[in-house]
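Notes from hallway chat w/ T.B., transcribed later so I don't forget. T.B. wanted the structure written out for a chain they're using in a teaching module, and asked if we could keep both sequence and structure tokens in one place. Agreed to drop them here.
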Amino acid sequence: MITYPELIERLKAITIKEKGYIKTHRKGNTGIGKTLEDLLGITENNIPGPNTAMIELKSARKNVSSMLTLFTKSPLPPKANSVLLERFGYESARGNKRKELHTTVNAKEYNRLKGKPGFKIDIQKDRVNLITIQKEIVGYWDKETLKNSFEKKLPKLLYVKAEAKDKGSNEKFWFNEAWLLSGFNFENFLNLLKEGIILVDIRIGQYPDGRPHDHGTGFRVFPDKLDLCFEYRERIR
């Protein structure tokens, strides 16, 4: 395994202006991460950080509006997904007569499901709730659980940004900005959630026997706001 100083030297080498644009190593949304990992000579995105601590590597295109997944966490209580699927799910487009629920939720307004208001995020003292327009709670997360989930997934983050051009297998990246982020700021996280900058993607399917299949309930953020979730920000490049 390479050391942190070696990693930073490799990062500086690929972010110099003379390096310019590099063709993607994989077609699609994950191409930027795969290309960066290959250039740095690492096989996974958990990498050695300062003082031997492990850090997460994330990359983002500067000139697109796609979001980054911070972490995934299913809502409580344990049967919340069953309730959401039963109440708000719709028949799958695959024609298999199973239900699914794919929706994005924010704290600013109710989502629209089946042509009607569905539910939204409501932040209270100790919990983050999912509430209907009738103020019924259909799921929730304890704030402490969310805080622990973030800190477990992203205690420290090496965040690399790139200019991107062209599309598909011809997409090219110029990696030209890198930050070491640490000190998760939970209050900032809640504020971004309240402002509708952090969103929650709910992806629930259904097994043949009717049980819900959680494809990953993700807390997501726009790349240019990611650094606001952290108290300490060190520009590496």
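Follow-up for T.B.: The first strand starts at residue 22 and ends at 23. Might be a good example for the class.
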